[in-house]
């Protein structure tokens, strides 16, 4: 596997970075966090992604190109449902996916029972990314995967660390759906679909965290160069140079593992299971270090609401809390390693 971008991928990265920088500035994110404006400012931003065709990056062979988009959106603290739609809903929905609609995935807590009128879904998933504003839901149950409209489903947005991230409690109270809403897959194929979809979700969350951590480092370096103490930039102090180096190394390690996970997905490589776990674990450990060092570089200024650093910090930390933390995925990696020794 080639672990460097080719010319087309570098051009794609530049194009996405330029577009996100113009369309999703820090002022837009701050405005949404502060509740300014009568309309949701993320709606026109979401429409711009639709117009650009970014929501059509659903082929697993385009996993690296998708990762490039998600890294830039993580860097910008993107407020739209693109992460949930492309990395969680679309892989489960398959040919039911509509590129013009936002989607969310319900991974756990829901049962499906057959009755003469069709299937009945019951249960609650307490933490569904973008579950409150999804136009379609992919629901994982022991009986298979259902792709449904959210009309009869109760949703409640939860208060979470990241003020522009939508996380919802999604409740199914005897929601009736038809057999046609269930993906027509054999049990083994359905399990394989869910497993592959989870790998994509983990890769997507990991590279989003990498983007947020890169933003923290960028802001910290900018501050270290412009802030003066004792007549010199604080960036000249060896202690801060060590912190910056540690952040850089942690980010590069997490980025490399995230893109390796994307490559295994694109190539349908059986290593994608362990690669996805490694990416999420490394991204989680990366955000812990970068969060601490980035905040310490700013000192008391890092705690103020006026500082844009907070949005990247919160996006990185929220990513660690979704889809399992670093410790959980390190345990999975250890189990896989032990299994190969038997």
TrEMBL record:
<dbReference type="InterPro" id="IPR009075">
    <property type="entry name" value="AcylCo_DH/oxidase_C"/>
</dbReference>
<dbReference type="InterPro" id="IPR046373">
    <property type="entry name" value="Acyl-CoA_Oxase/DH_mid-dom_sf"/>
</dbReference>
<keyword id="KW-0274">FAD</keyword>
<dbReference type="InterPro" id="IPR036250">
    <property type="entry name" value="AcylCo_DH-like_C"/>
</dbReference>
<dbReference type="Pfam" id="PF00441">
    <property type="entry name" value="Acyl-CoA_dh_1"/>
</dbReference>
<keyword id="KW-0560">Oxidoreductase</keyword>
<dbReference type="GO" id="GO:0003995">
    <property type="term" value="F:acyl-CoA dehydrogenase activity"/>
</dbReference>
<keyword id="KW-0285">Flavoprotein</keyword>
<dbReference type="GO" id="GO:0050660">
    <property type="term" value="F:flavin adenine dinucleotide binding"/>
</dbReference>
<feature type="domain" description="Acyl-CoA dehydrogenase/oxidase C-terminal">
    <location>
        <begin position="203"/>
        <end position="335"/>
    </location>
</feature>
<dbReference type="InterPro" id="IPR037069">
    <property type="entry name" value="AcylCoA_DH/ox_N_sf"/>
</dbReference>
<dbReference type="InterPro" id="IPR009100">
    <property type="entry name" value="AcylCoA_DH/oxidase_NM_dom_sf"/>
</dbReference>
<comment type="similarity">
    <text>Belongs to the acyl-CoA dehydrogenase family.</text>
</comment>
<protein>
    <submittedName>
        <fullName>Acyl-CoA dehydrogenase</fullName>
    </submittedName>
</protein>
């Amino acid at each position: 596997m080639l672990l460097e971008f080719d010319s087309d991928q570098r051009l794609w990265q530049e194009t996405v970075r330029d577009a996100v920088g113009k369309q999703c500035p820090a002022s837009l994110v701050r405005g949404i966090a502060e509740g300014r404006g009568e309309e949701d400012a993320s709606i026109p931003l979401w429409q711009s992604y639709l117009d650009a065709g970014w929501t059509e990056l659903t082929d697993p062979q385009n996993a690296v190109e998708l990762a490039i988009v998600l890294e830039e959106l993580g860097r910008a603290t993107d407020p739209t449902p693109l992460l949930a739609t492309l990395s969680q809903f679309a892989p489960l929905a398959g040919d039911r996916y509509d590129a013009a609609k936002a989607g969310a995935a319900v991974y756990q807590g829901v049962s499906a029972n057959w009755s003469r009128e069709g299937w009945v879904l019951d249960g609650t998933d307490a933490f569904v990314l973008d579950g409150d504003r999804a136009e379609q839901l992919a629901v994982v149950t022991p009986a298979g995967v259902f792709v449904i409209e959210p009309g009869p489903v109760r949703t409640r947005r939860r208060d979470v660390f990241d003020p522009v991230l939508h996380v919802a409690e999604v409740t199914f109270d005897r929601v009736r759906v038809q057999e046609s809403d269930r993906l027509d897959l054999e049990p083994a194929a359905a399990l394989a679909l869910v497993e592959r979809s989870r790998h994509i979700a983990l890769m997507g969350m990991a590279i989003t965290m990498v983007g947020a951590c890169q933003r923290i480092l960028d802001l910290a370096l900018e501050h270290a160069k412009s802030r003066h103490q004792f007549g010199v930039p604080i960036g000249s102090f060896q202690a801060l140079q060590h912190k910056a180096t540690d952040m850089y190394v942690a980010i590069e390690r997490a980025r490399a593992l995230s893109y390796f996970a994307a490559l295994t997905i694109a190539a349908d490589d059986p290593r994608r299971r362990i690669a996805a776990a490694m990416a999420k674990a490394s991204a989680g450990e990366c955000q812990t270090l970068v969060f601490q060092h980035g905040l310490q570089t700013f000192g008391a200024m890092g705690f103020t609401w006026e500082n844009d650093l907070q949005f990247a910090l919160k996006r990185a930390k929220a990513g660690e809390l979704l889809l399992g933390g670093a410790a959980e995925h390190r345990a999975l990696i250890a189990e896989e390693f032990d299994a190969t020794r038997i």
